[in-house]
Design goal:
The complex is a heterodimer.
Chain A lengths: L2 E6 L2 E3 L5 E2 L6 E2 L5 E3 L1 H17 L1 E10 L7 H6 L3 E7 L7 H15 L3 E5 L10 H9 L3 E11 L2 E7 L3 E8 L2 E5 L11 H7 L4 E4 L14 E7 L8 E2 L4 H15 L4
Parallel strand pairs in A: 1-6, 1-8, 6-7, 7-13, 8-12, 9-12
Antiparallel strand pairs in A: 2-5, 3-4, 9-10, 10-11
Helix pairs in contact in A: 3-4
Chain B lengths: L3 E5 L3 H18 L2 E5 L8 H6 L4 E5 L10 H14 L2 E7 L2 H14 L3 E11 L2 E8 L4 E7 L4 E5 L16 E5 L9 E7 L12 E5 L10 H10 L2 E4 L1 H6 L20 E5 L5 H7 L4 E6 L12 E4 L2 H15 L3
Parallel strand pairs in B: 1-2, 1-4, 2-3, 3-9, 4-8, 5-8, 11-12, 11-13, 13-14, 14-15
Antiparallel strand pairs in B: 5-6, 6-7
Helix pairs in contact in B: 3-4, 5-8
Classes of the chains: A alpha/beta, B alpha/beta.
Bound molecules: flavin-adenine dinucleotide.
Flavin-adenine dinucleotide sits at the interface of chains B and A.
Chain lengths: 258, 322
């Protein structure tokens, strides 16, 4: 049984390096590098493991401004066979509705039987793509999957919801959304990184895909600003005994122990 | 009056929180508040009215409606929205709720904002606040299409006390449920942490600075001494399964606001900070002098938690006369 796996990969800013303007509290993106969104690395890892177990092919699909394209090489080095990159206008701030429509257009052409995405992206954490694709494609989604097994085109998956742990079953084709608990993404070797440069990255536009996005986006950003931290940052020094005594004395004085 | 604001959560406590936000928005805009009262945790419809609903929607075949899957709930919400002028769907931002909302939004062909901190309606436009970039920033976003589909984080709003005098109607919807897409083989409640984090005065939290599960004993002893609740970072609750899932604090866990939060062996990644930064006093212990958690602390100790914690517990015991 060969699997035709597609993994949806978002390239985001390395959010830990986004600066804050000390006056306006607005984000500063200057020189902030791009990377593959954290949980999408878990999605890639799971896709590659399924391919290693069952045979088949892994294709990645990304949507974003073209300057982010090169970050997808890491996915190719991890074992993705082929990458599609749908280039969009740099200034366009696509919402999940639009991204799902674009991904849907690519997925229709790829006729995948297993689609994997992260439970949410590290920048926005909207957690909408899996369920939206499920509606668009009319196939089930197992959101927050933590363990996946496929036998004879039947998928058994464990997943973790708000208050319950479930084991669910359904047939291919299906969509999985995954988080950090499902696996530990591999670090590609130098050889794999070099090999990845020979793998194809196919760049597409929304015109190629014949998707016309709504003229008014569903959402408009009015403001982005960083809340200020009012912490006192008092370092308590000394050996354990001294530090513990100082700390406890302070906390008693603050009246937070009752 | 026109315009229906529909609320739903598979958790009753969250539904009541949503109703208190919904009545505020509905009063300002002359909308009707609807509540979808279905599934395993549905309430007495009169209680739902007493918490702020003008209309309570139930399914005719209420019996046999066990745990509904998000796809089914989405279809029910869409169905109810069709017969009235649906202006907004307010859904609780749980894992299931976010899936339900995303599906509903896709069925309706509209946008969706998940994990809202607050909402307002200005000049007939819905404006939402939510966290961005792991919580480092707060975003204010306008929702252009209608209806507005949003999920709201738990504990952002306080549910109104029950009012048995409130009037409302109970509507029985006839709807053939779609076949659930997933076959549930087994389902078990996650182990619950003993303490209620959201109501705790003191929280002692641990991160990957702990080397093995047994070492969390150090955390528990400190918590017991000061009468606090134990919490942890996502690696401990989800990846390693060392702590119950409901004790995770952060972006994909709980938002807490105790009087005292002590973070031990926690690096202080923004996704964790967002869950605890409303704490009154924050203390952290970390071996790395440059740990980001120190930026978010009132007091911090640069040291090995294995050395500090036992001493700290003993000193607390003495100070508290235990
Ligand atoms: C979309 C998304 C959502 C997320 N949601 C959450 C969430 O809700 N909650 C959450 O917590 N995380 C969340 N995360 C993960 C988050 O980014 C961090 O990976 C996580 O918080 C780190 O956990 P940690 O501090 O335990 O581990 P680490 O980052 O590994 O930090 C361990 C710390 O322990 C210190 N240490 C090591 N040994 C000792 C010692 N002997 N004594 C003292 N200190 C020691 C180290 O210096 C280090 O600072 C999310 C991530 C993503 C991408």
């Amino acid at each position: 049984m060969l699997l035709n796996i597609v993994v949806c990969v978002k390239i985001t800013f390395d959010i830990s390096l986004i600066g804050v303007d000390s006056v306006t509290r607005a984000p500063i993106f200057r020189d902030v590098p791009f990377k593959i969104s954290d949980f999408d690395l878990n999605a890639i890892e799971e896709a590659v493991r399924l391919k290693e177990r069952h045979g088949g092919k892994v294709t990645s699909v990304s949507v974003g401004p073209i300057e982010r394209k090169d970050s997808i090489k890491r996915a190719l080095a991890m074992g993705v066979d082929e990458a599609y990159f749908v280039a969009i206008d740099q200034t366009a701030n696509l919402d999940s509705l639009q991204v799902a429509e674009i991904l849907h257009a690519v997925l229709r052409r790829l006729s995948a039987d297993t689609i994997i995405c992260g439970e949410g992206s590290v920048d926005e954490y909207n957690s909408q793509i899996g369920p939206r694709l499920s509606e668009l494609l009319g196939i089930p989604v197992v959101a927050y999957a933590s363990k996946v097994e496929i036998t004879d085109r039947t998928v058994t998956a464990e997943r973790s919801l708000e208050r319950i742990k479930q084991t669910v079953r359904c047939n291919l084709p299906l969509i999985l959304s995954v988080g950090s608990e499902i696996n530990e993404p591999r670090f590609p070797t130098l050889l794999q990184i070099m090999g990845a440069s020979k793998k194809p990255i196919k760049v597409l536009t929304t015109n190629d895909l014949e998707v016309s996005l709504e003229e008014t986006p569903a959402l408009s950003i009015l403001d982005i600003s960083a809340p200020e931290s009012r912490r006192r940052r008092i370092r308590i020094e000394g050996d354990s005994e001294t530090a513990a005594r100082k700390l406890v004395a302070n906390l008693v004085q603050e009246g937070v122990l009752t | 009056m026109s315009g229906l604001l529909l609320t739903f959560s598979e958790r009753r406590d969250i539904l009541y929180e949503l109703l208190s936000l919904a009545t505020r928005l509905a009063d300002e805009n002359r909308w009707i508040v609807g509540a979808v009262n279905i599934g395993q945790n549905s309430a007495d419809p009169n209680d739902v009215i007493g918490r702020g609903a003008d209309r309570v929607f139930q399914l005719q075949s209420a019996s046999g409606v066990g745990d509904l899957q998000p796809q089914q709930i989405g279809a029910i919400l869409q169905h109810i929205g069709e017969s009235d002028e649906l202006v907004m769907a307010l859904i609780g931002a749980t894992r299931e709720g976010n899936e339900t909302a995303s599906r509903l939004a896709q069925m309706l062909g509209v946008g969706c904002v998940t994990g809202c901190l607050d909402l307002e309606v200005k000049e007939r436009k819905v404006v939402a606040w939510r966290s961005l970039y792991g919580g480092k920033f707060t975003e204010k976003v306008a929702i252009n299409g209608s209806p507005a589909v949003v999920t709201v984080l738990p504990r952002r709003f306080t549910s109104s006390p029950p009012n048995s005098q409130r009037k409302g109607e109970v509507l029985i919807t006839e709807f053939k449920l779609p076949v659930p897409p997933l076959k549930v083989i087994s389902s078990e409640e996650k182990t619950k942490s003993l303490a209620d984090l959201e109501g705790a005065n003191i929280i002692i939290s641990g991160g990957r600075g702990f080397k093995k599960k047994e070492d969390l004993q150090l955390l528990e002893e400190l918590a017991k001494t000061v009468g606090g609740a134990v919490a942890g970072t996502r690696p401990l609750t989800e990846d390693m399964d060392w702590l119950p899932a409901d004790s995770q604090v952060g972006l994909s866990g709980k938002k807490v606001n105790p009087k005292l939060y002590i973070a031990c062996g926690v690096s202080g990644q923004i996704q964790h900070i967002i869950g605890m930064r409303d704490s009154k006093v924050v203390v952290s212990i970390n071996i790395d002098e440059n740990a980001p958690i120190f930026q978010e602390s009132d007091y911090y100790i640069v040291s090995d938690l294995y050395e500090v914690l036992p001493t700290l517990t003993r000193v607390f015991k003495e100070a508290l006369g235990k």
